Amino acid sequence: xxALGLTTNISSMNARRNLEHTSKQVGLNMNRISSxxxxxxxxxxxxxxxxxxxxRADVSALTQGSKNVEAGAALLSxxxxxxxxxxxxxxxxRSLASQSANGTLAAxxxxxxxxxxxxxxxxxxxxxxxxEFNGTYLLNGTLSKSATxxxxxxxxxxxxxRNQIDLNELADLSDVSTSxxxxxxxxxxxxxxxxxxxxxxTKAIDTIIDARGRVGxxxxxxxxxxxxxxxxxxxxxxxxxxxxxxxxxxxxxSLTKNQLLVQAGVAMVGQxxxxxxxxxxxxxxx
Length: 286
Fold this sequence. Notes:
The protein is mostly helical. Helices cover 70% and strands 3% of the residues. The strands form 2 sheets. The chain has a two-stranded antiparallel ribbon. The chain has a two-stranded antiparallel sheet with strand order 3-4. A hairpin with a 2-residue loop joins strand 1 (132-133) and strand 2 (136-137).
């Protein structure tokens, strides 16, 4: 049993210290419940805080990566749409060449058919020159492997090659203008030139088919990459939630306990402050 003194009240000091600690715990419980977050700062748990912050950084990078790949997929879709139109034009051109190659047509009729033929060739070149995505022209060789600058999608958390998608390597879409397709000067005003045009158009159509195949492959890979990134974001977000988010039942239980301790602490501080008064009873009658 401690000495009974007047100037120092150790019991009161201990009671106040415990009361202050419990009051802080009540405040912490309320903060966690109101915010829904258990780990807000390093003092809440250094290991958990460092891990959750690292995961949150990854989630942010992967979320943006998914958006980047989605933009790349939109670029490829734009190129595919234009190639589809070019394919339609080439099919029409071959139909016209086949018509003009028929021996029953006269020179005047072939000239009339050639008017549409030439107009379609010009439209093909116009589409090639005009097809672009956010300022990047897509059908003039910009997406070929031999291009000076490649269009690279940033799809991961760092700049390593495994976290990047090179659209030029995937699509390898070279120039598809009439000059590159071997259709420069093509005309169908005679039966002989119509035969030549048929051969040239067959090769051009095969070139477009190959190009569409590569672009389609790039689109499929982009879709898979987006799906994978979204799954990663979901899983990492769940991990962050497990670490950071408050367990409401546990926190309410802790709050109730600490509130009871505060009430008990207040009572004990009052009781401890009464103890020195007992020493005064020894002086009665002196």
